[in-house]
């Protein structure tokens, strides 16, 4: 019996940039576990304490492709301490200035009535 060697190259997914790593996997392989592992390593390079805490929380809860896409972008933004400080200041200001809990409250405040359909 002669062993056959598969010389066909596997079809690869589009490369995914994760921090300093370019990840390319065969089609059909779920990239999320690999991305999670790379981001846990990247977490050590985040110096901003609030950013590190939130990114760690995000890594624990990420499940969907959108979650991981957002995490990759967040890691990119938070890698620089000044960028992370600006981002978290903006988030804190947004939370502090949020007044309305719902669209209904906003409509009441602005005296807007729903138009009858």
The first-to-last residue Cα distance is: 77 Å
Taking the sheet with the most strands, its summary is: 2 strands, antiparallel
Strand order of the largest sheet: 1-2
Overall shape: it is: elongated
How would you summarize the topology of this molecule?
Layout: E1 16-18, E2 21-23, H1 32-43, H2 49-61, H3 65-78, H4 81-97, H5 103-109
Antiparallel strand pairs: 1-2
Protein described:
Helix 1 runs antiparallel to helix 2, helix 1 (32-43) runs parallel beside helix 3 (65-78) and helix 2 (49-61) runs antiparallel to helix 3. The model has no long low-confidence stretch (mean pLDDT 83). A hairpin with a 2-residue loop joins strand 1 (16-18) and strand 2 (21-23). Strands 1-2 form a two-stranded antiparallel sheet. It contains 5 helices and 2 strands. The chain is mainly alpha-helical and 117 residues long.
Q: What distinguishing features does this structure have?
A:
elongated, mainly alpha, 117 residues, two-stranded antiparallel sheet
Task: Summarize the entry for a quick read.
The protein is mainly α. It has 5 helices and 2 strands, in the order E-E-H-H-H-H-H.
